[in-house]
């Protein structure tokens, strides 16, 4: 049994890199580096992606997306895991904005935006120790990153986990019940871990991810007063002066 937690043929289609001519092939890196400015790069990427999608769409038969009229248990799993993925991306984006702002206050030339959730949490906590926030702002920042970290552990088990065989015990919904067993590797020791979630609990975790996203933006815009670029710059300069 698992542990209970807390709380068309496209094989011959060109790759994005091949189509772009900037990531692969002779002189590719040189051409990529020759682009000047974010606008030019964004325009190039948009053109490449549009060409790839156009080529892809011509090679497959257009059909109506799958909408289950008689949902199976797997359909509900898809829905709730997808919902969590969607809301979690918003929470990560909000944390990245906070990290970018705090990195400008500290002016660390070696700082690079973290790619993993674990490094995001570590960097955020580190900045909270060095950025001279007012006590109420600091306290809320600590509370937000603690909530983010807690949901992150559940999210890891669900999104990076494999739906395990135990989920399908029983031939009917009534016997299977509304729970899912995920197999994933532990973030602590790397051991294979089995965790059971009720579908309703995954829904609650998704709701909390959305709430965290909104609360981070509220912290940025309302508490810190960074609701516009000029206000953000003023706030950064004010906190920099405290470090001088």
Number of helices: 9
Order of strands in the sheet with most strands = 1-4-3-2
The portion of residues assigned to helices is 55-70%
Query: What gross morphology would you assign?
Result: elongated
Low-confidence stretches: 8-46
What does the average pLDDT come to?
78
**Terminal residue distance:** 57 Å
Bin the strand percentage: 5-15%
- The tally of domains stands at 2
List the helices and strands and how they pair.
Layout: E1 3-4, H1 16-20, H2 28-33, H3 38-58, H4 73-106, H5 117-130, H6 135-159, E2 162-163, H7 173-176, E3 179-185, E4 192-198, H8 199-223, H9 229-243
Parallel strand pairs: 1-4
Antiparallel strand pairs: 2-3, 3-4
Helix pairs in contact: 4-5, 4-6, 4-8, 4-9, 5-6, 6-8
Describe the structure.
This protein is 61% helix and 7% strand. With 244 residues, the protein is of the alpha+beta class. A four-stranded mixed sheet has the order 1-4-3-2. A hairpin with a 6-residue loop joins β3 (179-185) and β4 (192-198). α4 (73-106) packs across α9 (229-243) and α6 (135-159) packs antiparallel against α8. The termini are far apart.
């Amino acid at each position: 049994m698992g542990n209970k937690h807390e709380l068309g043929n496209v094989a011959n289609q060109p790759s994005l890199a091949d189509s772009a001519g900037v990531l692969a092939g002779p002189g590719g890196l040189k051409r990529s580096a020759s682009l000047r400015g974010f606008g030019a790069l964004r325009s190039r990427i948009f053109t490449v992606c549009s060409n790839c999608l156009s080529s892809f769409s011509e090679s497959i038969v257009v059909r109506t997306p799958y909408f289950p009229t008689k949902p199976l248990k797997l359909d509900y799993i898809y829905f709730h895991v997808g919902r969590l993925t969607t809301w979690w991306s918003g929470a990560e984006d909000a944390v990245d904005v906070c990290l970018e702002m705090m990195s400008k206050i500290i002016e660390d030339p070696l700082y690079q935006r973290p790619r993993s959730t674990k490094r995001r949490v570590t960097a955020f906590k580190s900045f909270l120790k060095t950025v001279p926030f007012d006590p109420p702002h600091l306290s809320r920042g600590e509370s937000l990153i603690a909530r983010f970290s807690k949901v992150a552990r559940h999210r890891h088990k669900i999104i990076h986990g494999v739906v395990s065989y135990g989920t399908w015990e029983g031939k009917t919904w009534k016997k299977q019940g509304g729970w899912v067993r995920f197999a994933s590797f532990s973030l602590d020791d790397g051991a294979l871990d089995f965790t059971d979630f009720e579908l309703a609990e995954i829904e609650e975790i998704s709701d909390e991810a959305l709430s965290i996203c909104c609360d981070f933006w509220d912290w940025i815009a309302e508490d810190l007063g960074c609701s516009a670029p000029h206000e953000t710059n003023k706030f950064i300069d004010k906190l920099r002066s405290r470090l001088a």
